[in-house]
Amino acid sequence: MINVTKTYIPDSKKYKSYIDKIFSSGWLTNNGQFVRQLEKRLKQYLNVKNILLVCNGTIALQLAYRLLELKGKIITTPFTFVATVSSQVWEGLNPIFCDIDKETYNIDSQKIEKSITDNSSAIVPVHVFGNSCDINFIDSISKKNNLKVVYDASHAFGVTYKGKSILEYGDISTLSFHATKLFHTVEGGALVIKDDKLYEKAKKMINFGIYESDNIKYLGINAKMNELQAAMGLCVLDDIDKIIYCRKMVHEYYMSKLPQNLQFQKQNKYSSRNYSYFPVVFEDEKILLRVEYSLKKEGVNPRRYFYPSLEKLNYLNKNQYAPISSSISKRILCLPMYDSLTVKDQDKIINVIKKSV
Ligand SMILES: *Cc1c(COP(=O)(O)O)cnc(C)c1O
Fold it and tell me: Which superkingdom does the taxonomy of this entry point to (predicted)?
């Protein structure tokens, strides 16, 4: 089976050497040595000021909304993984969908202002497939209307915008380090927080709001990353440049061989790439279903991602429309994309697609 992605498994001897150290120290969690090491190395690698590691990417979003004390309505995108939106509902917030741009698949910044009401407290855009949103424009809208901005940057590990880490924009950016993501810690995530005071508060919030041993200062939760997760992250981080390079080769091979009448994601010209996904959009859903069927018959598992468009989630109020997101969702397929995908397997995928479109 060739799946849409393949979790990167680092050298097992290296991972075991971390395990041995964890076993002999007896320290498994609560800001241990490897969580601190990983935090320090990611701060350098990503070139960010304040990074906080947590146990998954969904709770990173929930913490971001809590830290910024968001209330009422949130302007967000329907073209994303469900966690962007379910985390809002979980925190008692009300997602209002702004449609996406049909070429970049990111929130259409030109339509954001129309979605703002008295009750809006924030914009939560997603850098879809690692492609940067229209950051400067979103920045100016948020300032003008006094809204907070949380970027769901789960796909944007290592991406830069105008030469600076993409994570440094907005009030908070969040990352996911789930096993299926470009960089992973099995399960995990992070927040990059602009304001220093808020960063200090976040450090306490992830540990039940305990300030010093006997002083519980804030409402908190348990969102700590543990030492075994951090050890995985340290191993994967050693290889990340190689991983991204191999993915770039896979990307370029697809681009050189796939029929050019498919639609590829239009990149923001100020954004660097991390090759986290390889989405293609077909002319209509019928063609997509034919391609998907033919690929599966050959043992290839692409993924309809993101599908369905989230404005129709059954736990949201029903009267929301996002025709562009809905249309793209029905026609988009993510092809297998991972560092060890072979040219032979890519050829198989490409030939099936050529025959079915
Ligand atoms: C993966 C992902 C999340 C959730 O992250 P988890 O670590 O799985 O909780 C949130 N948003 C987007 C866009 C994602 O792709």
Answer: Bacteria
Residues 6+ apart with CB under 8 A from 345: 2, 300, 336
At 44, the amino acid letter reads Q
Q: Identify the CA nearest to 5 among candidates 247, 229, 285, 356.
A: 247
Which amino acids bring their CB within 6 angstroms of ligand 1?
A: 56-58, 80-81, 83-84, 126, 152, 154-155, 176, 178, 189
Model confidence at 317, in pLDDT bands (50, 70, 90)?
confident
pLDDT tens across 282-307, in order?
Answer: 999 999 999 999 999 999 999 999 99
Ligand 1 atom at minimum distance from 59 CA: 9
Q: How far is the CA of 96 from the centre of ligand 1 (A)?
A: 19
Of 176, 232, 337, best ligand 1 pocket probe by most atoms within 8 Å of the beta carbon: 176
Q: Which residue has the tokens 């069927």?
A: 293
Q: How many CB atoms lie within 10 A of CB 99?
A: 25
Taking phi over 0 as left and psi of -120 to 50 as alpha, with beta for the rest, 29 belongs to: beta
Radius of gyration, alpha carbons of the chain: 21
Other Cβ atoms within 10 Å of 330 Cβ, number = 18
Q: Please, what are the domains in the chain?
A: 2-238 (3.40.640.10), 240-356 (3.90.1150.10)
> How many Å lie between the centroid of ligand 1 and the Cα of residue 188?
10
List, for residues 103-151, the tens digit of each pLDDT value.
Answer: 999 999 999 999 999 999 999 999 999 999 999 999 999 999 999 999 9
* DSSP states along 27-71: --SSS-HHHHHHHHHHHHHHT-S-EEEES-HHHHHHHHHHHTT--
178 Cα nearest atom in ligand 1: 7
